Amino acid sequence: MKPDEFLHLALTELREAVRHGSPPGGGACHTIIWYGYEFEDFALSPVTFHAKNVALDKFKELYMQWPGFSGNPEYPVPAPTSAGSSVSKVDRARMWYHGCTGDERWTGEYGRLRMEMIDFVIDYLEKELT
User: Fold this and answer.
1) b/e map of 22-53 (b: 16 or more CB within 10 Å)?
2) CA-to-CA separations, 101 to 27, 41, 81, 85, 97, in angstroms, rounded
3) Which residues, including other chains, have CB under 8 Å from residue 78's CB and lie 6 or more apart?
4) In sequence order, what are the residues at sequence separation of 6 or more whose Cβ sits closer than 8 angstroms to the Cβ of residue 82?
5) Rounded mean pLDDT of 37-47?
6) Please, is 98 exposed, middle or buried when counting C-beta atoms within 10 Å of its C-beta (0-12, 13-18, 19+)?
7) Contact 8, 119 (CB under 8 A)
8) Is residue 73 pLDDT above 90, yes or no?
9) What is the mean pLDDT of the chain?
10) What would the pLDDT profile of 90-112 be if each residue is shown by its tens digit?
């Protein structure tokens, strides 16, 4: 399986999990890594360490093109507008991510923004893979 195909599959599975009320406890990158381990564990298709890293690099490259990108490559989803503005947009993204726990990352305005980013990347990959 090519890294772009793996990334598309992992993000599509993530999107479906969120839609069905079973969001992951961590962020998208962490989920992509663990998704690769599932493939290896169940021998569905070999996804090497290198392929997972390539997929994560591609994810980062694509989410930085998302119009809603926070400006922080490590925390790409901006904090909700309700978060205030006492610190920079880039710092708010980091602080908001670490202030959320479990389902909070996938609900409300912040969750909607996360899903917008994931949908953006999935749409890009679908065009690229067809």
Assistant:
1) ebbeebbeebbbebbeebeeeeeeebeeebbe
2) 10, 27, 18, 21, 8
3) 68, 69, 70, 89, 92, 93, 96, 113
4) 109
5) 57
6) exposed
7) no
8) yes
9) 85
10) 888 888 888 887 778 888 899 99
What local confidence, expressed as pLDDT, does residue 7 receive? 93
Task: Give the integer Cα–Cα distance in Å for 56 and 102.
Answer: 21
Going by C-alpha positions, the residue among 62, 76, 69, 79 that lies closest to residue 129 is: 62
CB-based contacts of 106: which residues, under 8 Å, 6+ apart?
18, 23, 24, 114, 115
Round to whole Å and give the CA distance between 15 and 7: 12
Name the residue with higher pLDDT: 37 or 54. Answer: 54
Residues in the chain: 130
Q: What's the pLDDT at 32? A: 85
